[in-house]
Amino acid sequence: MQRFTILLGGLVTPTERLKAQVAGSRVIAADGGMRHAQALGLQAELWVGDFDSAPAELQQAYAQVPRETYPVAKDFTDGELAIEAALARGAAQLVLVGAMGGQTDQTLAHLLLGIRLAQQGVPTLLTSGSEEAHPLLPGALRLDLPLHSKLSLLPLGGFSGLSLRGVRWPLQKASIPLGSTQTLSNLAVGPVEIELEAGYGVVVAYPEPATL
């Protein structure tokens, strides 16, 4: 399975967990996201964007990386263009690094894009290192998180038949409407197992043990 890491321009904490998640993947950078490559020990095979957020010294440091250059005035973000480039190269799994934090509009757009990719059959992890998001669709999802990691389920399309195990506050076939905060701030007490009958949303996890 072709796994691609997309380097985006958001915040990144280069944790050991994040380094393991991107190890061995192919890499495409989106504009200023290239600044994360060195800290994560990654080499990009392609650099995509209008380069308005890539300072001259960054462009000089990675001058050897092939580029796809786009105008500043365009209908898609550099990140989405980088994702399309990965899909065109056979990506079957994506890790969007730098997708969390920063501007709210960008973060929400990345979360919705992750859901769309998952609906298209492309498993997608969105992460900053200290915070990660997993699209949640009907079916089963299993997450391995450090013990006592905090996690929240956001019912962006509402949840129907939601079962949640391996957490301090489990659920069994619950209905969670859009906008509910019922599934925020849970704690992992083992492997987290989620089953969803209908609806969609995201699981946002903080893979550092929470203070009890």
From TrEMBL:
InterPro entries cross-referenced by the UniProt entry: Thi_PPkinase, Thiamin_PyroPKinase_B1-bd, TPK, TPK_B1-bd_sf, TPK_catalytic, TPK_catalytic_sf
EC numbers for this chain: 2.7.6.2
Keyword field: ATP-binding, Kinase, Nucleotide-binding, Transferase
GO biological process, one term: thiamine metabolic process
UniProt xrefs under Pfam families: TPK_B1_binding, TPK_catalytic
Residue intervals passing through the bilayer: none
Thiamin pyrophosphokinase thiamin-binding domain segment(s): 139-202
GO molecular function (one): kinase activity
NCBIfam families named in the record: thi_PPkinase
Name the UniProt record assigns to this protein: Thiamine diphosphokinase
Organism: Meiothermus ruber (strain ATCC 35948 / DSM 1279 / VKM B-1258 / 21) (Thermus ruber)
